[in-house]
């Protein structure tokens, strides 16, 4: 039997979009962010803090799109997208989104909030590239600001990974807010996930704040897959587009 997917790889990008505004909400830069995201040529894009709806901003923000932000970013490059609403407030909501060049066969938003704290989600997408005999399981996450909450959320995510079909590739990306670097061990020991920058360089990438990255907040984890060319895009033209440096990598299945 010949497998049609002997050397299949896909490019993944993850970025916290800061709801489409520059740091301190000075300027709306979603159109520029879309242009920058396109230059990376990613097949799958994981977005955190992406605006799903807002009733006030469109009235006084120049260039505000007619569609949701994730539809605007997907545009013609990514044919499929999914959105998981997390934080809901009177004027709108924001959450995580996944843009994909390949069909998203199924998606669901897992609530990983802890107690009465800020709402947090894990957006799960089952993506089916036509050249593969099996799906790719993609999780897009944005974890809490408190260590105890993050530890609880990591346990929830490890449990989720362990429910997926054995042997199939898993990519988990996003803003883990893990400035104390406590996420790698539980995710590896409990769910077999490896962080690709740690595997390549011994520790996660510095991503925050983007103008002078000190904290290692953003991650890409894989299981049943390998990664090459992990890159933190602290390029000059990204610096005003988000307060986090985007991460990208080539994932080989």
From TrEMBL:
It comes from Pseudenterobacter timonensis. The keyword Nuclease applies. Residues 33-244 form the Endonuclease/exonuclease/phosphatase domain. Pfam families: Exo_endo_phos (PF03372). Keywords: Endonuclease, Hydrolase, Nuclease. It comes from the Bacteria. The keyword Nucleotide-binding does not apply. One of its GO terms (molecular function) is endonuclease activity. This is Endonuclease/exonuclease/phosphatase family protein.
